[in-house]
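Please discuss these two lines.
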Amino acid sequence: MTVSTPCVQICVLDPRTRICTGCGRTVDEIARWSAMSEAERRAIMNTLPQRRVSKEIMPLAPLSRDRDRFR
């Protein structure tokens, strides 16, 4: 079984927000990711686009669910 993830393998924490500029997750979310249920992961992934806007985080790469559109 594969685990849903927004990870784009570009792990850089924004020093101001402590949010990964690659995927948009917090350090705590990244640490707990593998222990979360699929529903919890999906719920967080649904918040990432708005989180980027509200925290003014510039993505370094598209989110994984959008990745196929850019190939």
The chain has a mean pLDDT of 81. Helices lie at 27-32, 38-54, 64-67. The chain is about 40% helix and 0% strand.
